[in-house]
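S.,

Sequence below, as promised.
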Amino acid sequence: MSVPFDSGAPSHLRAQRIVLFAVLVALALATADLLFACTFWQALYHVPPLRIMQNIAAGLLGKRAFLGGSSTVVLGALLHYAIMGVMVGVYYLASRRRRVLIERPWLYGSLYGLVLFVVMNLIVVPLSAAPKAPVVLSWIVSSIVVHVFIGLVIALSARRAT
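The prediction came back faster than expected:
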């Protein structure tokens, strides 16, 4: 079991610190995930990084996102960070109710990462306004690995924050 995250502090201060910790984890993971996506698409397919953020914005705006310039780049980045915030927040909240999520972070973090991949790629993206993209096997495999990593970091950080 991990050492509690400042367990001697009053509960409201401890809760504030846990929220701050979760926000920092979400910011770090969202940044790392964007760097991964931008590097992957730039290196293999010469897609500029700004186009990646516009593609995220296309989830709300459809093809119009690619005509929006810097405003849709910013929108895409904000959406990406918000989505990661939700991903982190859901696990942190669930781990408060189901202690096993922080007692076995390697297992449940990995499973959570797989669930995140499935939810994003089989539910969120298909229901969004984003244009249909071609299937790129190397992207799918890489994304699964990255989502498992994200799930692990979330679970391990939730364990550390408790």
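The chain has a mean pLDDT of 93.

Coffee later?
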